[in-house]
Design a protein that fits this description.
The chain contains eleven helices and eleven strands. Strands 1-2-3-4-5-6-7-8-9-10-11 form an eleven-stranded mixed sheet, with no helix packed on it.
Length: 271
């Protein structure tokens, strides 16, 4: 008896569906615009999908434009678009889309999103449920950090990932000065050329008093910045602190390890 040939939808999309977990895992599957169109035309077949992985597919703004019009993912909560070729225009398209209205996690690490694209997320009316935003390894820059720090459209945000985004001290100071992202409990700022100025701003910020995880490794923080973090009167909820690969001298590192802050931490990583 002849086996019925699979449809393109079954072969390229539904074959990667894990119904039990509501996962559609299309990471690194050489997705083409045609495949994205198929995904968007899947109808009820994807109605229970909560997590969509499209990472590492070389997707551009064109594919994002197609995806943004999809109406077959009503329960989508987590969208992974990391390591693609999405720039500011793609970010703007995504931010305006109804597709993202129920997201609690948006992963965009390793794209080409700059200040304008970041602004589109910071001002989007569709991201009110977003809890975790990954913008690592994008050219966000200080201006992008400033618009994030002033955002009134991300009320549920608790985790902000800005590793390797070129935000520098000015961007860090903008995040530290936020009056609106006060619910943050996880902040990742690795590899941003942060100096003592930025570290002191973090340490002296009452707006970041809810942080339980702070990652500032591989920066340019010296003794003054290290001391400020250790002696902060606001980082009282901190449980995990990652600050390896900075420029803090041995005596100050020893002081940090024996500080009251260190005694409260569950994890302290510092060379």
């Amino acid at each position: 008896m002849k086996t019925k040939a699979k449809s393109k939808l079954e072969e390229h999309i539904l074959a990667y569906l894990i119904p039990e977990g509501g996962v559609l895992d299309l990471e690194d599957t050489n997705i083409t615009p045609e495949h994205v169109r198929l995904l968007c035309q899947a109808g009820e077949a994807l109605g229970e999908v909560k997590q969509l992985y499209l990472s590492n597919n070389g997707l551009s703004n064109a594919e994002v434009e197609i995806l943004s019009k999809s109406r077959c993912l009503p329960k989508l909560e987590k969208l992974f678009l990391n390591h693609n070729q999405i720039d500011d225009e793609g970010a703007k398209t995504l931010a305006k889309s109804k597709l993202v209205r129920n997201l609690n996690c948006l992963m965009l690490e390793g794209n080409q999103i700059g200040p304008e694209g970041t602004k589109s997320f910071a001002t989007s009316l569709n991201l009110k449920k977003l809890e975790t935003l990954f913008l690592d390894s994008n050219p966000v820059g200080p201006e992008g950090a400033k618009v994030l720090g002033k955002s009134t459209c991300l009320p549920a945000l608790t985790a902000l990932h800005l590793d390797s985004t070129g935000i520098g001290d000015q961007g860090v100071k903008a995040i530290a000065a936020t009056q609106t992202l006060t619910g943050l409990n996880k902040l990742y700022l690795c590899s941003n050329k942060i100096s003592d100025e930025g570290a002191i701003a973090l340490a002296q910020s009452p707006n970041l008093k809810n942080l339980n995880c702070l990652s500032i490794w591989r920066n340019e923080i010296r003794d003054s910045g290290g001391k400020a973090i250790a002696e902060s009167q606001y980082l009282v909820k901190l449980e995990r602190l990652y600050m390896s690969l900075n420029l803090i001298e041995k005596p100050v590192r020893k002081m940090i390890r024996s500080s009251e802050l260190a005694s409260r931490l569950k994890t302290l990583v510092m060379d």
